[in-house]
Design brief:
Blueprint lengths: L9 H8 L17 E2 L10 E6 L38 E5 L5 E8 L4 E8 L8
Antiparallel strand pairs: 1-5, 2-3, 3-4, 4-5
């Protein structure tokens, strides 16, 4: 992913995501909030990597979350804030079938690895 374009701001992400799309019936349709999506469920063949929100100049992005309206991490209404966790660790994909955009990051715990996905729309993106 060394050649993956860095999406450095909410405005740049909004420009990418703010496109018409159709409802999708793939395994990512359930990902309104952060959902576990293992490699077998991740529809790699129909997704195109658009960019990354992970700053290449930061060795370890922070873990501070952004919830100005009291949402929680897993909430479908939680704002997408490119400078905050978990968005600062995400790749951005576009579905070739429906044109929806989805974020992916991997949650790491003591003894587990949990790839997660979240579909996004421009209205969810918080202005930096």
């Amino acid at each position: 992913m060394a050649n993956t374009p860095f999406i450095a701001s909410s405005l740049a992400l909004r420009d990418i995501v703010d496109r018409p799309h159709n409802p999708c019936k793939c395994s990512l349709a359930r990902c309104a909030g952060w959902e576990s999506v293992n490699d077998a469920q991740w529809p790699l063949q129909q997704l195109e990597l658009v960019g990354t929100l992970r700053d290449p100049d930061l060795y370890e992005p922070g873990f501070e979350e952004h919830h100005p309206k009291g949402t929680r991490y897993e909430s479908a209404e939680a704002p997408v804030s490119v400078k905050h966790f978990p968005y600062n660790r995400c790749e951005v994909f576009s579905c070739k079938q429906c044109s929806q955009h989805v974020l992916r990051y991997t949650e790491f715990g003591g003894y587990y690895v949990d790839p997660r996905g979240r579909r996004i729309t421009a209205d969810l993106i918080h202005q930096d």
